[in-house]
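Morning, I've got a small favour to ask if you have a moment. I owe you a coffee for this, so here goes:

…
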Amino acid sequence: VGALVSPYMFNFYSSGAVEEKWDESRVRSNRVVATVGMGFGCVVAMGVMITAGAVLYARGIRVDRYEQVALAMVGPLGRWGFFLFAASLFVACLGAALEVGLDSSYLAAQTFGWNWGENLRPGQAARFSAVYTLFVALGCLPILAGADPLALTIFSMALTAVVLPLVVFPFLVLMNDPRYLKDHRNGWVSNVAVFAIIALAFLLAVVAIPLEVFGG
């Protein structure tokens, strides 16, 4: 859950909607994009767990390093599995780095009233462009300092799940406000689902973080 629903996604997605000047006519297409996008992410996540269980767990392989994860695809696909894993990891890491960097720029620019926009040239939004360039560079420092990338990833996902309630609650209130959303408010099924998922993620993370800190 921490990998699939990250706090930065709310501001990143909404900033894109503002930049592209979405209006009420985009509600249906937005629902399709959100459903298909999150559905695809869920299928990939389930596929990773099923493959890991069928290939790695069945052989008693305990994953302590990123390179061991490639064995899950090398087993069924041979040499091409390794190249496919490397390409997938590169795309996922690059995409995440760019999205988080851009979201940091959105937050900084919107807070301080700077020009901002992904579609603007760097000269038109110099401070906005400087922030995401800096954040992408800073993201390399923990690895250059010798941090374990797998442990850092797992810990950050658990930390993400802990702060999710703080980020999601204002959105949950907004999604039920008739003054803003009129007839497009959340129904009770959506509210219960969101609340249950966030509560479960929070409880799992509260247990996971001490285990990660003290258990290595």
The chain has ten helices and no strands. The chain has a mean pLDDT of 85. The CA atoms of residues 102 and 199 lie 28 Å apart. Residues 79-112 form the longest helix (34 residues).
